[in-house]
Amino acid sequence: MFRQRGPSPDRREVNYTREHVAIAKTIRRRRRVVRWINRHLGGIRALLFGIGVVWILALPLEALWRGTYVDEHALQPNQVNTYWDWSNVHRADRYLDELEQMVNSTQAERSDYLQRAFSASGHDASNTSTSTYAHVQPPRSNGLEVILVSANWMSRESKPNLRGVAILLALADFLRGQNYWANDLVLVVGEGYLDGLEGFMQEYYDRFNGVIWTALNVDYPGHSFEHIGLFYEGLNGRLPNQDVINSVAQIARWSGGVTTRMHDIEEQGYIGAARHLLNHAAYSAFGRASGAHGVLAKHRIDAITLYCPNATGPHGFYTLGKTIESTLRSFNNLLERLHASYFFYLIPRSGKFIPVGHYLPAAILLGASVTLGGFDCPDPVQGLIWTTPVVAITILGWVVQSPLVTFLAVAAPKPQGTARRSFLSLCHLFFGALIPTLAMVNFPQAIALAFITSGHLAPWRWVRWIMVGLNPALLGSDLRREWETLGNLTWVGIMSVWVPLGIVAAM
Amino acid sequence: MKLLLYSLLLSAVASLATFASAQKTVTAVHNGDVGKHTNNWAILVDTSRYWFNYRHMANTLAMYRTIKRLGIPDSNIILMLADDVACNPRNPLPGKVYANAGRHLDLYGEGIEVDYRGYEVTVESFLRLLTGRHPDHTPRSKRLLSDSSSNVFIYMTGHGGVEFLKFQDNEEISAFDVADAIEQMSEKKRFNKLLFMTDTCQAATMYSKIYSPNVISTACSQIGENSYSHHNDMEIGCAVIDAYTHHVLNYLETINKTSKQTLQDLFDDYDPVKMLSNPGISTELSDVPPAEILVTDFFGGVASVEMTVPSLVIEFADDIKWPEAKKRAPRHAELDRTPYRRARPSTPQSLRPTNLDTSIMKGGNTSPLAIVFPILISIGVLTLTARTIMSVS
Amino acid sequence: MLLWSSLLPILTLVKATSTYDESFHESLTLHPLPDGRLSVLFEFTTLFSSTSSSRRSSTPVAQSHHSLTPPSLLLPLEHNRVSELTISFVSGRWDQRRTGEAGPLHHESGGGGGEVRGWLRNNQNGKPDFEAWTRVTHALGGLFCAGLGPSEDGDSVNTFGHIYPAHVSQTNTSHFFLPQPTLHLCTENLTPFLTLLPSKGLSGLSLLLARPDLVFAWGFQSEGIEVIMPSAESPQGRWRGWWEGIVDLVPPKGGDRSFSLNSLFKKNVPRAFPMADSSVLKVILPEQEGFRMNNVPSKTETKWIDGRLRNVANWDLSHGDMAGKDISFWWDGEGDFRHPRSFTPPTVTLFRTVIEPFASDGTFSILIHNTGDETRQAVYSEAWPWWLQAWTHEISIAQDKVPSPLLITSMFYEPSTPPTASITTLHLGITIPARSTLQLKIPFTKLTLKYTEHRPDAERGREIPSGMLTFLDLEDSDDCQVEVSVRKTSSDTLNRSRCSRREHLYTSRRLVDLPTPDFSMPYNVIIMTSTVMAVFFGLMHGALTRRWGYVDIEVELDETDGAVASNATKHTSSKVE
User: Fold this and answer.
1) Chain A interface disruption, residue of B48, B49, B51, most A CBs within 10 A
2) Strand C462-464 relative to strand B159-161, pairing
3) Which of B293, C140, C157, C339 sits a CA distance of 20 to 30 A from C278?
């Protein structure tokens, strides 16, 4: 194995051994390929971008889907008898009558009524500044684990969630005296749509010693319903463990006798699936929660919202009560946090899902198409120096909390020549790396970021100017308010990624 | 060269012959040791935890109740339950475990002794139990104090696979470990006969590696087959018994302490249709066929008593001070009942020196491979030598 | 001592007729609670003198006589030179607010889960005898079908001696304490408990207890034994077993809360156990008016229970004339029970939780609420597993949200020695001012566990034992011995929180999430290691066997820079394999 050191070869000689010729051919071929790629880089980038777009358009096709199943054996959905009966429905109706008198009451009055109702059922009740809650303590439970059930005062239809609160009160009455719960239950009525529950969670740790693993949110504004809509997006695009959705769907179907839909949309075929995915993207891309359950996501609680849209249909308190009771019994069976099923998925239709491996390549391809534009960097130092005005304007934008600072970049000095090429390539590399990173955590937001990035860094000036014109300030100030109250990171993302992109495009 | 060839051939033939004859001597040595058992031990292991594995604990507890009914006392039963379902807060019938939805018999009852509970049920503790290698402070109730005249019944249930059994969803015991542990028991003379019963998926693979004599094994399913639960109880919310154990227990319900049914009757009662799988039976390691072994030899605590002398004379010493009777004489017979553990069994075999002579020969089943291998090796050697001879010339 | 001379009243009852000085006393205490529930406590006390009769007989063979005492319990204790031992199992949790009581009826119950603590005599070198402690805990663990030995969280700790002082002061003993928060109760713990009693669950009050289907439906179950072995200084030994639970008196669908012995235990008053020297049914009468019973008690006395003056009705069941009868209790004029909206909490309440819970750290927040008029002195103690490390320099205490560091008068901290399993102990001497709420904050961080140290249910988290508050200023003064006649009008509350025998208050246990690794990791690690090894091997092999040389490559026509192609060969050095 030791090399034989001979005399150094004469550099002016031509060498003809077969080995040399073979190697020379290899090196030549390699160089040709690289040169070809470099010549056609624009085309390759466009091709990757095109494939990425086609992949996204192919997501509503059934070939990429898989059937859902309940993975955690402990849940055992539908394996237990339910005891919710018409006497509980009657109590819910009575509570509903009393709540209907309180539609125009103040928060203090409502809270007082709810606390009295919960106490009359035999539970501890109290309130925080934004919510009222009851702590159900079953006799044999340790208090170490807690299941949360919430019904906020405002429904997603901006009407009072009267029947949701009524069924919560009836549930409190129903749970008393039951001896087979291993978890405590906390029943929360939060003010507003999301803010009440968020305020409750901020004070939860001071008041309770138990750990919450799963939760349910009930939204029932109308009279009767014929199907239940399930909403699962959480804040910042964080999704609950898929077992929660799958078990609730199965339980509603077999124990409750009612079908469920995702997002309350049910349509068949490609268009229906595309609508589901767009609906999901409309929430996740902005980091918004699709129901009050979403504010629980950052506390590592797997939760969904059961929404009962108004219909003349046959179901009411009885069905919903059985569904909720059977779901809570399944959650009660859990001895560990949910960890078996998927945390990253897209749902194009009830009963089907798209696993990570089937949708992530789209984002990777889009990210790659941006990253490939960053390999031509003749002078990195110069490029770095030119990022300073970008960073400065971004920080200024954060201080004044407005994305309009992008337009300041029009007056900024512009790099030329190799400095410009280096600067742009560094930008391509940086923003191209962000897209796949974000895709794992929040796929719709990553796709949106990919399109925004590709637009801002496009080679054609007119595209760039249009993108600068579509300033994020057009989105309004809701996102900023959500960042301050709920912790929605989209605002931070806009100020730290979109604004710099606009600056780069304007330079 | 030809000499070399012939000598190799001769050595191959000679090794085969000695091997074959060795088999015969093994069986001859073990033939004398047949069938004197004076006590029974049982090890019942449930290896899976969590509420939804209620049926595994019900399996084990039903087996526990059956062997208690047939006479094995708590002191001779090692019960290992990896979780607690009777007093689990999720159990709507607290303190009770049922093996059927009709709830005929409460398996937990009022007197029960669980020796290994919860996190103590591990592969290590199971193997230590079988081999008797405990730290000094292990209490008696956690030790297998069997001797050379004990019939030991091992029952294991849980989730398993090909040649392994899962303990608590976290670790696995392999069929080789079980076989080696049983061999250690055999060498230390910790059992007279052993019945190894498993109820898991692909259970027959668990006993496929056992190589010690006097072991009968049976399992609920073959390789590639799962073990199915029998039925659910909708009040409790889980499946309550497995099909195989349900069937075996139905049969054992017809047995009482005086029954003369044999293990062959138990095996004949197996019904693959009802059990939803093909049960496995392995009796090759046992010299005594199952038709000559009573079911109560393993499942019951029946022992025969021999009178060695026709009568006994007891003499009292003169200076014994008998305690004075208490002022209030006990009126009830129950007070005479001593609840304490049975008197000490004989010295555990683990403390006696092992007799190594007979243990070197690993008798039992000679798999066909043991005969084919030497043949193959000798053929290979022969062809190699032939080739080298050819190439050299 | 803080013993309250509890031995004195019992000793007066002992009849000195039996040769072995043994006597057995049993009692059942019922205490109706304000939220429609009932606290039930069985206590079985056996007094005995030394069981070994070496001083009596002349033979050199050691003899041990047991008539009412169980040898399976006492022999291991004697052989291992145990002076006192307490084992307690608690399943469930105690709600201080709704019950109005700071803890269960039997004050020696520990925090949640299982707990073993005791005083053992030192070995020959005068050092704590760890081997004896191991033997005792394993032997009793085998007896009670509960794993009482050292756990994965740590071995025993020796710093709780002043928290649990010895009832009989001895020299040359050391204290051992081992909390096991994961233990829970089931029939296999009840069966040996009953067999240890002389009545075996077959007659007397233990007959009511021998129903596991009823007992394990109770909330907050607690079982325990406490043994004080006789010694040269105090020849009277005592072992006491207790079983406690909470029964919900209101039916599931609502109703009234009247109850009777039959409705509780499915049996009437059982026949008396003949060997019992006393057999008493006590009912602690509620402070509100309206409580009635259908049988006149033998005796009603007034006692200080937990800082409040209460009336206790006693029925003497040892005569046998009560056997077979049922005693019922009800509230006059109360129909269906209506749960009260507010409750009077006990004078001092304790609550522990974890605020700011992150993946790798958090902060314990302990709230101590004192509604009384007196300043209290107490010690707050914690015992943590080795993987929980507190930042002790950041411990802070605030009174009504105002930081008051002077309220912590002393601190004793014994850290664990990770990664060996060991327990950290922390004792803080605290002054609790009158009518105040204290918040004690202890920040902590969680260490990383090895892959193999995780439990089978690793995603659940791990339980931390309860924290406990021990009062140092309980009273035994004349003020606390009040005759019934001295009691003033009902408007005088006579609430002296220090006239209590309850030394310890416990928080509930806590489930702490531990960051778990990816348990499919071994497979992935093997694959990755194999890949890395293969690639590394390939590189190394290539580097070692590669030859370097010069290769001519012709320049192509369309190379970059647009330079005119020259046929001059460019000498380029390249790797040659």
Assistant:
1) B51
2) unpaired
3) C140
